[in-house]
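haha ok so turns out i had the wrong file open the whole time. this is the CORRECT one, sorry everyone. sequence first:
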Amino acid sequence: MTDTGSHDGTGSYDGTLERTATGGTIRFERHLRFPVAAVWDAITNPERLADWWLPFDADITVDLREGGEMVFTSRSGEPGPMTATVLRVEAPVLFEHTHFVAGSTLLWELEAADDGCVLRLTQQVDDVAAAVDGCWVVGLHTSLERLAPAISGSPVPWDWDAFAAAREHYATIGAAAAEPGS
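then structure:
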């Protein structure tokens, strides 16, 4: 488990990719020095999501109910709008939605801890090769490294150098392509 109460650029590489008979499971577990309510707000509130989730500036809408949509629209127009569907909401401890790519879901679980909370993020994928080639573990890792600073009110920009370093690490365990497009 990674302690990410503050952002110092030294977060460990805690993501895993388990291959299963039906695809794969990506997992992260982070200890955050923030209460469940603050983390819940950061993962479900469109204004807060924009501070840490994507590698580009986006307008985000979230209809936080089963069957609701999450729409991410890049302010530059590229990539085009991305839509996910909300599958389950048990505020403030469980949030599940589809991914922008068909055949994938993300499950966010929060559990109170003595000095904050534990965030467990699980992404189910049908196509492990696409997840590896697309560096999904690396993207999630890079986004999660930005979560604590965003919650603390000091969002940090997407760091492509950190993304490259994470890609290099995750490639050694088969969870990312060794080189972009490889």
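The first helix runs from residue 36 to 44.
again sry for the mixup
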